Amino acid sequence: MNAVVKLTGYEKTTELLTTIATVPSGLVSFAKTVAGVPETDPDVAAMYPLTVPQAEAIAAEASLALDPDRFDYCLEAIAEGGRSQAWKV
């Protein structure tokens, strides 16, 4: 499986996945550190909910736009052409 690390946004009112942005490969290590991904999860197999400051730090480094008033953000790996981990629940 080829998975790509993404900054995902879930709409606060509906909890639906609404926005997905790819974290550039050169920033994945930074994003994992900011999100608190443990070394035991090198492939980001789990979904990591982010605080607003965490999401803002990742977005700033990756030049991504955020709307923290509208979305809750997570760091997760999504298979190319696949679905978010949230689809499993």
From TrEMBL:
Domain DUF7683, residue spans: 7-76
Pfam families: DUF7683
Name of the featured protein: DUF7683 domain-containing protein
Native species: mine drainage metagenome
